[in-house]
Amino acid sequence: MTGKGGGEDSVAPISSAPPPLDWKFSQVFGERTAGEEVQEVDIISAIEFDKSGDHLATGDRGGRVVLFERTDVKEHGSRRDLERQDYSISRHPEFRYKTEFQSHEPEFDYLKSLEIEEKINKIRWCQSSNSALFLLSTNDKTIKFWKVQEKKVKRVSEMNLDPSQASGNGNIPSSSTSSSRVCFPNGGCSERPFKHLSKDFKFPPEGFPSLRLPVVVASEETSLNARCRRVYAHAHDYHINSISKNSDGETFISADDLRINLWNLEISSQSFNIVDVKPANMEDLTEVITSAEFHPMQCNTLAYCSSKGSIRLIDLRQSALCDNHSKLFEEHETPGSRSFFTEIIASISDIKFSKNGRHILSRDYMTLKLWDINMDSGPVATYQVHEYLRPKLCDLYENDSIFDKFECCLSGDGLRIASGSYSNLFRVFGCASGSVESTTLEASKNPMRKQVQTPTRSGRSLSSLTRVVRRGSESPVGDTNGNTYDFTTKLLHLAWHPTENSIACAAANSLYMYYA
């Protein structure tokens, strides 16, 4: 059953169609000035909202994790409370920089003579506790569990000896530091200059009337502290492409090209291999795992997708090693449509469950597909993301762009989906019954500036990632209609706010936010 892509009619999987959204620019962090060169380490490689939507995390190729927190809710109370009071909410979601920390460092595997990049591949939020934030971050080989918490800054309130209390011959020569604030090796600080006793100072025979011991006190000032609680390492022979936390709050999975491992958050020394697609002879390898995701409500169910364009649903209750799937979702190839690029563009790069777990959204190179987990005969709807690039597949293959991995996301209400494209464009589609919503936005302060011509035919699928090595021309490619497409500027990563119509997306090192 085929849905709409661009302007075609769609078969709706959900409910009655709401009107199309009017998207507006909200904020940008790390905006580039004209002609500014982007450093490789600053390019954003992961985006994730937490469950409440009050915090946003980004990871970059330099191994850093940057946290943002929402400010408009704090200033006006919770949105739900204001709605109950019929309070007119005219403000759009606003975030501010909270903190950042170095999550991963570049490493070298001496046994395999392999460099391990510090690039953050995925970030996943965990359950917060006692005002502390918890999250998982991973690079190609190592997963880390982080705790971010505000702590009161501790200071030393008094020194060992107060010169004003000295008696007898206790004139104390001193040398004060040039700064009024002194920090000590134990992390404490004093707002007073430290007085150093001279070498010829002698304690009076009768002693001092008072001896002041150092007292460490907590001040009103707070600082954010990020601490790595656990490191989950040495469990993957191949590059980790995804991590996903379980709804039980205790476990999570990590997936590489051939295996999926199950971890307990509290235990970093061991994991359980639950999926292994590695053949006895590597020459027989026909497909690899590209992404894996836990069901949002059923802790025993997870899905993973492959480079062949299939999605497998597995039940952890069936066996310890889940090599046999409980359901298989794949779209059968149309006779006579096969080409050199068919298998390449069929590879699924990302999957996401809807909030209620009823649907799975998948992204391949050309399309978004929506699947009903109760119907494995085919997708309930297909959406063409950039069908106009189909005549350019040869150029995309030559410059390796055909292997780019685009992510996808669903709105919290399940009525819309979104994914990125080239020229820093991203598409938003309505997936409710009868919806014809199909919006093209550009990651800039004027998101409606660049509109793409509506494609006229349906498309197939793909998406896979490589580190892009440019062999062909990097100049923008044009078509007969005068449209140009810049394959060097691509919008791979984006996330939808869990409760509101707000999207965060990454264009190189810049984080753009939009609301409707």
Task: Describe the overall structure.
There is one protein chain. With 516 residues, the protein is mainly beta. It has four helices and 34 strands. The protein has helices spanning 72-76, 79-84, 342-346, 393-398; strands at 24-29, 44-49, 55-60, 64-70, 95-102, 107-109, 114-116, 122-125, 133-138, 143-156, 182-183, 189-190, 216-232, 242-245, 251-255, 259-264, 267-276, 289-294, 301-306, 311-315, 327-329, 350-353, 359-363, 367-372, 381-384, 408-410, 416-420, 425-430, 438-442, 477-478, 484-485, 494-496, 502-507, 510-515. The strands form ten sheets. A four-stranded antiparallel sheet has the order 1-34-33-32, with no helix packed on it. A hairpin with a 4-residue loop joins strand 27 and strand 28. The longest helix has 6 residues, at 79-84. The model is unreliable at 4-15, 165-179 and 452-475 (pLDDT under 50). Residues 1-21 are annotated as: Disordered. It comes from Platanthera guangdongensis. Pfam families: WD40.
Tell me the strand order in the biggest sheet.
1-34-33-32
Distance between the termini: 30 Å
Assembly category: single chain
Morphology call: globular
* Share in β-strands: 35-45%
Radius of gyration: 28 Å
The mean pLDDT is: 82
Q: Please, how many helices?
A: 4
Structural class: mainly beta
- Low-confidence runs of at least 5 consecutive residues: 4-15, 165-179, 452-475
Summarize the biggest pleated sheet.
4 strands, antiparallel
Helix % is under 10%
Strand tally, please?
34
InterPro entries: PP2A_PR55 (IPR000009), PP2A_PR55_CS (IPR018067), WD40/YVTN_repeat-like_dom_sf (IPR015943), WD40_repeat_dom_sf (IPR036322), WD40_rpt (IPR001680)
Organism: Platanthera guangdongensis
Function: The B regulatory subunit may modulate substrate selectivity and catalytic activity, and may also direct the localization of the catalytic enzyme to a particular subcellular compartment.
Keywords: Repeat, WD repeat
